[in-house]
TrEMBL record:
The chain crosses the membrane at residues 6-24, 33-52, 83-101, 107-125. It comes from the Bacteria. The keyword Signal does not apply. Keywords: Membrane, Transmembrane, Transmembrane helix. InterPro entries: DUF4956. This is DUF4956 domain-containing protein. The lineage of its organism: Bacteria, Pseudomonadati, Bacteroidota, Cytophagia, Cytophagales.
């Protein structure tokens, strides 16, 4: 029993280390989450392994998964990208502790598949985000539909962002201002929802 626990824990720790140190950390550089990921993974592994003898198995595992997923709504907001890594290390802990596999090559293959897919998506899936800024705009003459090109160029000049489209949210004719959403592409998610004068 001790040998089985040790072997599975080492397999779990090895693949979790690969994910955190060589895939997650080079991209996010957040030491706080590194500690949290290792801790959650280890706690789940030990908990699931010790309770695997009780006939709970899948229901127990998915219950834990659901419970930890709810932490997103009860604690400090975690960026969605880092939540993906959180779910991965939780999944690794569960798989390596309660998978009823005596075939260790299959267990290693399953771990390798998860880690490999994560690596490939993180390295090669380089999509750009469409971000936006909410702006309070004072030149109502350019808010007209036939002035869209001039409006976009004026916003580019004022914000310095490569804006490609604009949405008029509302126009206040009494104050002489309009609220706009100005959209631009970026590799990073930089959406600003605070009003800015333009």
């Amino acid at each position: 029993m001790i040998e089985l626990f040790t072997l599975r824990f080492l397999i779990n720790l090895f693949f979790t280390f690969l994910v955190i140190r060589f895939i997650y950390y080079p991209q996010y550089k957040n030491k706080d989450f590194v500690f949290t990921f290792f801790l959650f993974n280890s706690i789940l592994f030990v908990l699931c392994f010790l309770l695997a003898e009780a006939d709970l198995k899948f229901g127990f595992a998915f219950g834990l998964f659901a419970m930890f997923s709810m932490f997103r709504y009860r604690t400090v907001t975690v960026p969605i990208g880092e939540m993906g890594y959180f779910f991965l290390v939780v999944t690794l802990g569960i798989i390596n502790s309660i998978a009823s596999l005596e075939n260790y090559p299959m267990l290693i293959l399953a771990n390798s598949l998860l880690v490999g897919v994560t690596f490939l998506l993180g390295r090669f899936l380089t999509l750009t985000h469409e971000n936006f800024q909410v702006l309070t705009y004072e030149n109502l003459a350019l808010v007209k539909p036939d002035q869209k090109a001039l409006l976009i160029q004026d916003l580019i000049d004022k914000t310095g962002q490569p804006i490609h489209r604009v949405q008029v949210v509302k126009v206040d004719y009494q104050r002489g201002v309009a609220q706009l959403k100005a959209y631009y592409y970026s590799k990073d998610n930089e959406t600003f929802s605070a009003d800015a004068e333009a």
